[in-house]
Design a protein that fits this description.
The chain has 459 residues and is α/β, with parallel strands linked by helices. 36% of the residues lie in helices and 23% in strands. The protein contains 15 helices and 17 strands. The strands form three sheets. Strands 1, 2, 3, 4, 5, 14, 15, 16 and 17 form a nine-stranded mixed β-sheet that branches. Strands 6-7-8-9 form a four-stranded parallel β-sheet. A four-stranded parallel β-sheet has the order 10-11-12-13. Strand 16 and strand 17 form a beta hairpin. Helix 4 runs parallel beside helix 5 and helix 13 packs across helix 14. It is globular.
Length: 459
């Protein structure tokens, strides 16, 4: 939790000083999270060089120095599953059951999408995430070269997959592979990629099996929706005698590095299959959307954790969640898990922070690079101001961060050592210009009179 050996006396690129720093102990599974007071973080070449005392860096020269007194430094939050450009549809499909939400609004509207619509939506989403302390997001959508270009420009880290349905024909699957290979390692290594079949109910067994083979052949992970809700699981059992997780297993996808979105329909019989993967399968939970859709269950975080399955936190797209606020996702995950399990001792604030940081980094395949503030890790960090009346006094710093802090309390966001927002000022995106153009494009984007639909939701 401190600098290894004597502090490097050479000038640093960035020094953050005077703050409390969230630290993880080796082997920590949530309860070992602690906070180092009056600390400093030294960054060189996009990497954390030291986490040390503020006193030890007082005279150390730096290209940029941030006085963070009254603030807490955290690993940047990771949004493990979203559809970033769908911020353009925020509030368009409200108070609807899942089937109507897809069939009557979202999938008809998505037939209108152009690359420019996606670019503007991605810009707005990235601005929202930077302002909310998100430094990395996993995206699963269309026109993904456009999203990759926005990520490269704005400075975020992203795990991107080009979504496809079997109904689009074999070319869509091929395009997903081509995108993943073309953009892997782009933006100076800030972009990682995945194959992105939509879901077992929209992708055939043959395409799922082909995806698994391609993932193994090219060393690519897979990002998919599966067992999103209990209805999907019940329908899968009635049609095939298999749960969605068992369908994925039959296709060979549980033998790949797999990120499953939602999993609120995961059953007890699925757990041994997931445990067998040895942590290569992860699940992203986005609880706000489950509440909006009135789904009867939530992601079984406790059971998954017992099975050794990493569980990362997410928002899903803003068309269903209305927000890309990971602070809300963190608080809701803790509260809903307490209610579901009937146990106020689970999920604790420290466990929630663990899932928002280290577990989320593992979920997107970046557990060796981000998710903790330690020497050798990429310098993805955020500074949170706790001087406001809603965060004072501080009796338990972890509880204050999870249950009192808000996205608006994030003062500074840093990715790969580059400051993307400082003192709430965005430095890499022009939000007013994006909003003006997006507003002009909305009538064409949201038209549904054409009678087309991207896909049919019939689970």
């Amino acid at each position: 939790m401190s600098a290894v050996g004597p502090l490097n006396a050479a000038p640093a690129d960035l020094i953050v000083t005077g703050c409390a720093v969230l630290v993880h102990q080796d082997g920590d599974e949530g309860e070992g999270i602690g906070f180092r007071q009056d600390a400093a973080i030294v960054v060189r070449d996009g990497v954390i060089d030291a986490v040390t005392t503020a006193a030890s860096v007082r005279d150390l020269p730096a290209g940029t120095r941030i006085d963070a007194r009254g603030q807490v430094a955290l690993p940047g939050l990771i949004n493990c599953h979203t559809h970033a450009p769908m911020v353009a549809l925020r509030g368009l499909a409200e108070d609807l059951p899942t089937e109507e939400w897809f069939n009557d609004v979202v999938w008809p509207v998505e037939t209108n999408l152009t690359a420019r619509d996606v670019e503007l939506g991605a810009r707005l989403a990235c601005a929202e995430m930077i302002r909310g302390g998100v430094t990395c997001f996993a995206d699963h959508y269309f026109h993904m070269d456009t999203v990759a270009a926005v990520v490269a420009e704005c400075g975020l880290r992203a795990h991107l997959g080009a979504a496809f349905f079997s109904g689009q024909g074999p070319r869509a699957r091929e395009a997903s592979v081509e995108f993943a290979l073309r953009q892997r390692g782009a933006a100076g290594g800030r972009i990682t990629t995945a194959l992105a079949p939509h879901a077992p109910y929209t992708v055939t067994d043959a395409d799922l099996a082909a995806t698994a083979e391609l993932a193994r052949a090219h060393g690519l992970p897979v990002h998919i929706h599966a067992a999103e809700n209990r209805d999907q699981t019940d329908t899968s059992l009635a049609r095939y005698g298999l749960t969605p997780i068992e369908v994925l297993d039959r296709a060979g996808l549980l033998d790949t590095d797999l990120l499953i979105a939602h999993g609120t329909g995961i059953l007890e019989r699925d757990l041994p299959l997931l445990a067998r993967t040895g942590g290569r399968t992860a699940v992203a939970t986005a609880p706000r959307g489950y509440l909006k859709f009135a789904w009867p269950t939530t992601t079984p975080v406790r059971a998954l954790r017992a099975a050794g399955v990493p569980v990362g936190l997410a928002t899903d797209g803003a068309a269903s969640n209305n927000s890309l606020d990971m602070w809300e996702a963190m608080a809701l995950t803790s509260l809903i898990q307490k209610s579901t399990e009937g146990d106020p001792r689970w999920l604790t604030s420290r466990q929630a922070l663990h899932h928002a940081t280290r577990q989320s980094a593992r979920a997107v395949g970046l557990g060796d690079w981000i998710g903790t503030l330690a020497p050798g890790r990429r310098a993805d960090l955020v500074l949170v101001d706790l001087t406001g009346p809603h965060t004072q006094p501080v009796h338990d710093l972890a509880a204050t961060l999870v249950h009192s802090a808000r996205a608006a309390d994030v003062r500074t966001t840093v990715v790969d050592g580059r400051v993307l927002m400082r003192d709430r000022e965005l430095l890499t995106l022009d939000v007013p210009a994006v909003v003006r153009e997006l507003t002009d494009r909305l009538p064409a984007l949201t038209a549904r009179g054409h009678g087309r639909r991207l896909q049919e939701y019939d689970t």
